[in-house]
Amino acid sequence: MVAQLGNWLDERFGWRRVWELIFLRKIPKVNWLYTLGSATLFVAILQIVTGILLTIYYVPTPDHAYDSVQYISTQIPAGWLIRGLHHWGASAMVVLTLVHMLRVIFYGSYKYPREVTWLTGVLLLLVVTGFGFTGYLLPWDQKAYWATTVGTRIASVAPVVGEWILRVMRGGQELTAVTLARFFGVHVWVLPAALLLLVFIHMYLIVRIGISAVPKREE
Amino acid sequence: MADDDRINRRGFLSIVTAAIGGLITAGLAIPAVAYIIGPALRSDKTGEWIRLGSTAKVELKTPTLFKATVERQTGWIVNEEELSVYVLTEDGRNYIAMSNVCTHLGCRVRWISEQDQFFCPCHNGIFDKEGKVISGPPPRPLDRFEVRVEDDQVEIFGG
Question: Which of A38, A73, A82, A83 to mutate to test the interface with B (most CBs of B within 10 A)?
Fold first, then answer.
């Protein structure tokens, strides 16, 4: 019955062919360091799931942000777990993305024909950094407030356009409700959209070109 | 599968992968469900004794209006709410306390002493002084609170 339904759907979707292309690829003999990209993807999915759950209670305004985060952590069943996973997952994202990048550098995997995969990877690193920077403000505690004050201040030392960048980031001269709202908007809409698009291209290229082999001594 | 029933390497790894994936999914899905439905399961009945005022203020045989502020917490927001309660005593010893919220659609009733009845201005609901419906649309008498007298103070149980 299930097999019949599967066949019926496959006749229309052709999903078995897609499945084979993605998961039953021939891969060269590689080592565990080649799983770092998959590990990053896994944590990214975890961040999406826990992040969506957090928005159910979180409110991005100065009079509610801190209290709603405390409410999640102390009053909601498993709230500490969901927030904890998102918190530690954020650090894991940065670490894994960087280590994955180092692996690609040291094994020379960025070379022809994988230059575009590398480029999307560089953009993904920027997106991950953006997630970290915008997400850090959202709990709206002292650490968040001052870290963002300093972080946006750093942008302002850029020559000529610095002050203007600071004003755009903060939504004005000061760090206010406007800043919190736009950081939230960037964190939950702009960056996730960019992440999904880039991950899709990144994955498509990996499936299409295949992963690189460990370089041989004579190469 | 080979000719015999022994499981091959590929089959084994598929099962292990699916099992680990299933465990991770369940490990996340179960807390997620608890997280989402948590506030809905919380009991709203966290009552306490609320002090209304001195028994000396209660007029004999006439419903007397008392106001008390109660703190009500919804999620992470604490609101002060004003509670209006009519207290009635026939003999100075036994008290009844009635909510001033009309049982029809939630408007506030008020005591009209000339007519000796409660009147709700929204849809002309009329109650007698013990809160029983005389006429109009209200489906049941005015809600009552549990009352006690402590140190000559009238207290009701609510929250």
Answer: A82
